[in-house]
Description:
Strand content: 15-25%
Mean pLDDT: 93
Number of strands: 16
Structural class: alpha/beta
Bound molecules: 6-O-phosphono-beta-D-glucopyranose
Helix content: 25-40%
Amino acid sequence: MSTAGSDAPALAELAPGDPRLMRTPAPAAIVIFGATGDLTQRKLLPALYSLAAQLLLPPETIIIGAARTVLSDDDFRDRMRAGVEEHGRLPIDRDVWAGFARRLQYVPLPFDDAAAYGRLRAAIEEADEHRGTRGNRLYYLATAPEFFPVIAEQLGRAGLAAEPDDGARFARLVIEKPFGSDLDSARRLNARLSAVFRERQVYRIDHYLGKETVQNLMALRFGNAIFEPIWNRRYVDHVQITVAEDLGIGSRGGYYDRSGALRDIVQNHMMQVLSLVAMEPPARFESRDVRDEKVKVLRAVPAFDAAAAVTDAVRGQYGAGWIAGERVPGYGEERGVEPGSATETFVAMRLTIENWRWSGTPFYLRTGKRLPRRATEVAIQFKPAPHLPFAAGAVEEVQPNVLTLRIQPDEGASLRFVAKVPGPRIDLRVVSMDFAYGSAFLRASPEAYERLLLDALLGDSTLFARWDEVERAWEVVDEVIRCWEDGAAPPPPVYEAGSWGPPAADDLLERDGRRWRRL
Ligand code: BG6
């Protein structure tokens, strides 16, 4: 028997060849651990609802929320509806919601209570038998990280982790960040997970990989013939990757104070972006090929040693200041932050990639909270023209070419070059050629979590971090963590909220005769 929602007939009516048919996964029981948390309400449920509304979730799919709080199915549905209303990309459609809500269930579950997993198993098996989920399971760990291994082990004990080799049904574990808090803890976590799940079953989320603009890095590089020949040390002077946020840490003080910008953004999101910018072309756009090429980049990045941790990595912590005309408190005054905390909210670093393509071309990374504006971009700064045949006065304005990939907001790309100012003499000025997603495609991009949840259901791990990538990214920054957490290290310098970080970040580039781009 199927209790398909009201969207079932529409799915059947899709014309052959409709791309949604090729991207519609097999029905599954999706179990979200940490279902009463912020991530579930703000991101996961809105994303699943959007997939359902776009007919990308088969109607037999069910979603089981699991968390410690005791709730009824109806309470859970109400909470999730509020989440979709407030944070969803698509407005709620009454009929779609009615079908979707019927798929939502809730199982109260203390994460370390074996008996509760028995009840979860019963709910899943019931769905297999009566709802048509066919033994397929997708477990999503959206809990505090200390529960990741506990839940995986309990799933194993309850007989819920096994996946047959013949692909007849799947059991996948999607795991949120942070994956460990340094190299050692990440290795320990991985060892515990891999005692229960095989690597092919584990989907480590880095939501940056779900962003359209991040995927576009590969489209731009490998879908065009003109960029690859100049995408190397001969033509590229240096690369700047910026993840700037104007917001502070909001209500996440408890988490953030134990994490800091290096763990929160650099080790994962920025390392992923770096590897997409610098990787060799994969033979095929397939999970193994793409991830093999990405990890090669990270292996070619020398890990920081104690000396480089001092010279090539800069940190800072925001103090009070002004953002968009509003007075904002300093980090130390935020809720959940330990008095005298030395947690960094800003990181700048200089990396190199020691391979034939990039040797000698520095990559500068910077990220921070409470910077003047929200902007994530990759800027490929090319070398200057080797010779300018123009009269001295004509070339005052000449600056090297820059290809900027705007990841967010104002998604798009632009190329800066020099052009002649109209008039009777040669007079050169910098201009820019611009591509904007909004006007080029006139269609809204899906949320990163929509794409990633769909890929996990489809078994496509291309946009998820493989263990060797995660491990190598930790190896690269591990010594920096150690230096900064050494009790003897001076506290991070304070930068004023609304500024671009501490002066040491500027010195990092000035030393090389370069400057951060003004955003
Ligand atoms: C998260 C971090 O992974 O990424 C947050 O924990 C950060 O601190 C967020 O604000 C940034 O994501 P986005 O998609 O807004 O760039």
